[in-house]
Design a protein that fits this description.
Number of strands: 13
Number of helices: 6
Distance between the termini: 37 Å
Shape: elongated
Oligomer: single chain
Structural class: alpha+beta
Order of helices and strands: HEEHHHHEEEHEEEEEEEE
Strand content: 25-35%
Helix content: 25-40%
Length: 256
């Protein structure tokens, strides 16, 4: 019944969209053209404009080239690698992930980055995950000491990634704020309200993120136990990963 009702609602909207596209009174403003679902998009020149126009038409190869070109110009070696992969393969699944939830790129000896892109404008970003210390440079009140605690993530991560098996830094990312259960008290607390300290043990699960197999040096994990190091929240749209926690591996399982 629910599917039938949804289908009926879609059918009811389609004539309105057709009418909107045909009506001179509802024509797009000057400098814009009508694209998918009857929406108006600006006409933009240059590489970004070409990517924008391609996205309106569903031309994924051109979208891939636009985003790939932008990633190569970002000052981030790992981003350049991702950009080359996109340009070489024009991989729709990979580009869909980058313009969707984003991709975590991890490498030994350099900060982990989140690569996100806008499939409409072609604009790409590389957000360096440095942790709360750099987000909040002002001195924080001293916390009372306590023994290390153990927590289990009650919310699966979107992805868990490390640099090709180097467990020194394993990063988990969530689209929505995760909740954790204290294994001793059984209290359930949502991040970032959770009192996490360096050395706390975190047990996290995630589905396999197959796109990481296409990126050199990256490995997707489905289950991990880490000693907490730091975390960060970044701004982003509702479909993108925004909540990140990382630490040293205390035991990992490869994605199958």
């Amino acid at each position: 019944m629910k599917l039938r009702g949804l289908f009926g609602a879609v059918l009811a909207v389609l004539p309105l969209l057709a009418l909107q596209g045909a009506s001179p009174a509802l024509a797009c403003p000057s400098g814009q053209s009508r694209g998918a679902f009857g929406w108006c998009y600006p006409n933009i020149g240059g590489t970004v404009g070409q990517t924008w126009e391609a996205a309106k038409k569903g031309d994924w190869n051109t979208v891939a080239k636009g985003v790939g070109d932008v990633l190569i110009t970002v000052k981030c070696p790992l981003c350049a690698v991702a950009g080359q992969v996109i340009l070489k393969k024009e991989d729709r699944a990979l580009i869909s992930t980058i313009v969707g939830r984003g991709v975590i790129l991890s490498s030994v000896g350099v900060p982990t980055v989140l690569v996100v892109a806008d499939g409409v404008t072609g604009a790409a970003q590389a957000i360096t995950l440095r942790g709360r210390a750099e987000e909040q440079p002002m001195q924080q009140p001293a916390l009372s000491s306590r023994a290390a605690k153990s927590f289990v993530a009650d919310t699966s991560a979107a992805c868990i990634v490390d640099a090709a098996g180097d467990g020194a830094r394993v990063t988990a990312g969530w689209v929505s704020a995760p909740a954790f259960v204290d294994e001793a008290s059984r209290d359930r607390v949502q991040f970032p309200e959770l009192d996490l300290r360096k050395g706390d043990i975190l047990k996290i699960r995630a589905p396999e993120c197959a796109e990481y197999a296409k990126l050199p040096g990256q490995r997707s994990l489905t289950e991990v136990v880490i000693a907490y190091d730091d975390s960060q929240i970044v701004p982003g749209s509702k479909e993108k990963m925004k909540f990140f926690i990382w630490g040293r591996s205390e035991g990992v399982k490869m994605a199958r």
